[in-house]
Design brief:
Length: 66
């Protein structure tokens, strides 16, 4: 049984002199259980406009009850 869905948006916060990327994420809990990939991408685009951060990935994390 599905217990919770969390959407994690990942962005690159910094690039070192050697070219290594530092990635950070913002997590949004209490999202709809039936969240689809197009909806997650649309949400990612809207949050990107609000925060000014360029998100490179969106991960849907599902927690299930065993």
């Amino acid at each position: 049984m599905l217990k919770e869905v969390v959407l994690s948006l990942i962005y690159i916060s910094d690039v070192s002199e050697s070219g290594k990327e530092t990635r950070k994420s913002r997590r949004f809990s209490q999202v709809r259980m039936d969240l689809t990939e197009p909806q997650a991408n649309s949400f990612k685009d809207l949050i990107s406009i609000l925060t000014g951060e360029d998100y490179v990935a969106a991960e849907k994390i599902e927690t299930k009850t065993v």
